[in-house]
Structure formats: C-alpha cells, structure tokens
Amino acid sequence: MTIGIICGLFNEYQMFISNISNTEQIIIDGVNYSTGKLNSKEIVISYPEPDKIEEAVAALKDNFSVKAIIFTGTGNTFVASLSQGNLMIISEAIDEDVFLAESTMIDGIFKIIEKLGEEFKLKTVVGKVLAPGHYLPDTDHIICIDEAGVTQAKAAVKLQIPFLMLRVLTKEQQYISFSEEEKRDIFTNIFWLIKGLVEMI
Questions:
Q1: Are 149 and 71 in contact (CB under 8 A)?
Q2: Rounded to a whole number, what is the largest CA-CA distance in the chain?
Q3: Do 99 and 153 form a contact (C-beta atoms < 8 A)?
Q4: Could you report the per-residue pLDDT of 15-24, keeping only the tens digit for each?
Q5: What DSSP assignment string belongs to 141-174?
Q6: What whole-number distance in Å separates Cα of residue 132 and Cα of residue 144?
Q7: Taking 90 as the threshold, does the pLDDT of residue 155 lie above it?
Q8: Residues paired with 41 in a beta bridge
C-alpha cells in the first residue's frame, strides 16, 4: 500500500525527504513528487503550489495509486483557548459543503500520541478547518482558517481517497514568528506522528 503526503510547508517536505530511503524524483505537470520508503512502507511526498493542489491529489491517485493521503500545513485560529504552535487534527473541512476526514486515521493518531507519551510535546486538539470568509454560527467550535486545507479535503473526497489533515496553528497568520528551533521541534513531532501512522496503515 502506498501512502501520499502533501506538505503545506517546505520545512516539512525537507524533513520527510531526508528521512526516506530509495528516493526517486518524478515531475508531473510541473509538480515534483518524491517516492521512497519510510521503514517498509511506500510513500509519495509532494509540496505543490496552492493552485496545483487538486492536480497533485489527482496525480497521487492516478499515477501512484495511493490508498490514503496525509495533508500537513498551518492554519490560522482566533480561538482564545488555543495557542500558536498547537496541533489541530482536522475532523472536517467546511465551505458550502462538509468534507469528513477518515475517522480510523484520526483514532490512529491518538494511539500514536499515547504511545509516544512525554516525548510528544505538542498540545493537540480536534477541530474543523474553514475557508476564509466562512463562519459557523456556534462560536464554541474549535476551528482554524485555511483555504488550502478545504481545497485539499474537497479534492480527496471527490476522488474517494481517505485522508488525514494536520494543521500547526498560528495566530493572525504569524508563521514567520516561529523561531528556527520552534519550527524544528514542531516538525520533528509531526514527523514521528506521521511515521507512526504510516506504519499502522
């Protein structure tokens, strides 16, 4: 089984590339895909531009026959109880429609967090991702705003590919305010999560 990973940040992409074996680079319609093995599992990693997300998802299915996709990236949140650097596991993406993430993959992530114990440093919540300009009437929802996230979820559901989405939370889109050490710590934690999930699928 081949697993697809679409990274929202180049730092994440670099971390995965440096930790997989038997790497091969393939370019399809201007998008770079890196194939290889993470332990014994076949994976394909891509870092597409925002306007190439739908094409990248389709290519993962049509050219690499992936059975599931993991999306990573950042999302902006205004929820007071959440802090910059928290990790949100997306249960659903919302614009005019609702696009549900694969529940078994969400359950798998929490099993891995439990297994990692104190080694896992990120506060983690489950929430929803919304497109900019779309708001929910109930303010108690745990949400983040990320147009790319909604596009990713919509493309995966359209092609009937199970997906998991992880978003590192920012406040007022201040990803640039993370120090290099903070970025390294965040992406290391996310790498171990995804590595564990890939092994479990």
A1: yes
A2: 49
A3: yes
A4: 889 888 888 9
A5: S-EEE-HHHHHHHHHHHHTT--EEEEEEEESTT-
A6: 9
A7: yes
A8: 38
